[in-house]
Automatic annotation (TrEMBL):
The keyword Metal-binding applies. The keyword Ligase does not apply. PROSITE patterns: EF_HAND_1 (PS00018), EF_HAND_2 (PS50222). Transmembrane segments: none annotated. InterPro entries: EF-hand-dom_pair (IPR011992), EF_Hand_1_Ca_BS (IPR018247), EF_hand_dom (IPR002048), Parvalbumin (IPR008080). This is Parvalbumin. Keywords: Calcium, Metal-binding, Muscle protein, Repeat. One of its GO terms (molecular function) is calcium ion binding. GO terms for cellular component: cytoplasm. Ca(2+) 1 binds at residues 52, 54, 56, 58, 63. Residues 39-74, 78-109 form the EF-hand domain.
Amino acid sequence: MAFAGVLNDAEVKAALDGCTAADSFDYKAFFKTCGLASKSSDEVKKAFAIIDQDNSGFIEEEELKLFLQNFSAGARALTDKETKTFLAAGDSDGDGKIGVDEFAALVKA
């Protein structure tokens, strides 16, 4: 798992179990349950780097769609509705993607 050593496996499983149904993903609940919300800013930046699959310095819509799969390879993709809601919540400057500072603010929201 990409987050081994950063997050507790049982907490990640609980977070994933909480959003198995389509349109049930809630980023605030997910970040809190998986333990990311209580991590240091350096650890949140490490998480951002894992999710930023193409190393562009931003998390784009396609990477958000596959967000849960960063935590478990067998996890579902987010629905279009969930992806757009997640992106809108994190994209504070309106550029259509989430930068590292925007991600940190989203995790701590």
